[in-house]
Amino acid sequence: MRKRTRVYAAGVATSLAAVLTATTASAAPAPGTPGVGDPYYPGDGNGGYDVIHYDIRLTYEPGTDHLSGTTTILATPTAELSSFNLDFALDVESVRVNNRPARVDRDPADPTEVVVTPAAELAPGEPMTVVVRYADTPSEVEVNGFTAWKRTDTGALAVDEPHVAEWWYPSNDHPTDKATYDVSVAVPDDVAALSNGVLTGQSKTRAGWTRWNWRSAEPQATYLTFLAVGDYDVRSSTTPSGLPSLNAYDAGLGEIRPAAEASVERTPEVVEFLEELFGPYPFEAQGGVVTHGLGFALETQTRSVYDAGFFSRGSNMSVVVHENAHQWFGDSVSLGAWSDIWLNEGFASYAEFLWSEHAGEGTAAELAQYLYDSIPADDPFWQVLPGDPGAENQFHAAVYDRGALAAHALRTTVGDEVFVEILRTWLDTYRGTHATLDDFVALAEELSGTQLDEVFDTWLFTKGKPEVGPNGASADSAARTTAVTEPESFREISFTHEQLAKRH
């Protein structure tokens, strides 16, 4: 099955290349495509241009949920364009392209597709500046019956995966087009406006209002940007490695607050541990935000966001490890298509196993065997394929847990030294860009000198419980041995699935 997936992915890439080549070769300018052809979300992203930078300047009123502002997009056309699309769901007031007013239309088949026709045709390779003014009430805007914008008691959260940008800024919304960001948000003095990267400053804009300014200097995917407005206790410090660290805690956490702090304040320690495995931390800042009303945790770049429920039983280092492992797997090296989600979740989940071993709470081998033994063969869990789960199962527990077992099976097959070499080479080679599962398999086979179809087919692309466990023992032999005692940290790891619907 993995081989068929490879052919399909290659077919998509070939067809996209053909479209771009035909567009470039054409004598007449043509519209940019309304999507990049992602197998799960074909309408995501837009063809014909590459975004370099987003400058997002907003004003938000928590009491009315009114959001207004301007996003300036610096981009480069990759083809001669008569028009191009932006992914955006809010009401657009005006668009200017290269300082001239442009015509704006909505695609009637997809309300998130904003079609922009500039006053003059756009030449490939020539920089373009797009200025979009807009205003709306994001919580009232639904796309297919859903809104990713979440109002809270004191503000709002623009945090979600795979889509969130459409509810607060226009973009080329696909992980294959990463950019740098400046985010500036004016809010009432009694609330904070939090986002990614480094806080470059706060300034009073008028009586009762403060503007918060953030900068992300490393390439960032659209779904990894976030905005959190509300009553937060914001704590700034410097990590032992010299990076700025900013953590924020919802003022309403109550008795959960100490457990949240006992976990999130250890982020620099977690990063140091992960650097030993994955190589240097890829970004300019660290931190975390703990809030209410989210329902999951997400690896928003440089500063993960956690729902308070993760800490309702006490400290929870597994979720902090998971989201920070994503800073390498998913944030620095982004997926080439949403069907490649295992590259993000499998290794972030396996990092939890490795932290458990580091903390003396059960080895990775013990956790892998316990997890394998604890799920019956007839459980529907084994019918979801981590290597291509489908959009409907993209965040299924199997993508995380069977994905972690796949990572451990790879480790046991190639050995520890080669396993670490594969991970570090992968992260170094594709840092700041994106890559596919096929790219990972090819690299793993090259560095190990081993044909790995059996490992990847078994754990990622074959339905049913594998007959051989992640540590290499057959299911029958595992059943005949003395039952493995539940590792201490396994309750913490499984809790993240039981208590909350998603752990990204």
From TrEMBL:
InterPro entries (alphabetical): Aminopeptidase_N-like_N, Aminopeptidase_N-like_N_sf, Peptidase_M1, Peptidase_M1_aminopeptidases, Peptidase_M1_dom, Peptidase_M4/M1_CTD_sf
Signal peptide span: 1-27
GO molecular function terms listed in the Swiss-Prot or TrEMBL record: alanyl aminopeptidase activity; metallopeptidase activity; zinc ion binding
Domain Aminopeptidase N-like N-terminal residues, every copy: 53-224
Swiss-Prot/TrEMBL keywords: Aminopeptidase, Hydrolase, Metal-binding, Metalloprotease, Protease, Signal, Zinc
Keyword Hydrolase attached: yes
Listed cofactors: Zn(2+)
Signal is among the record's keywords: yes
Residue span, Peptidase M1 membrane alanine aminopeptidase domain: 313-459
Protein name, entry field: Aminopeptidase N
Organism whose genome encodes this protein: Saccharomonospora azurea NA-128
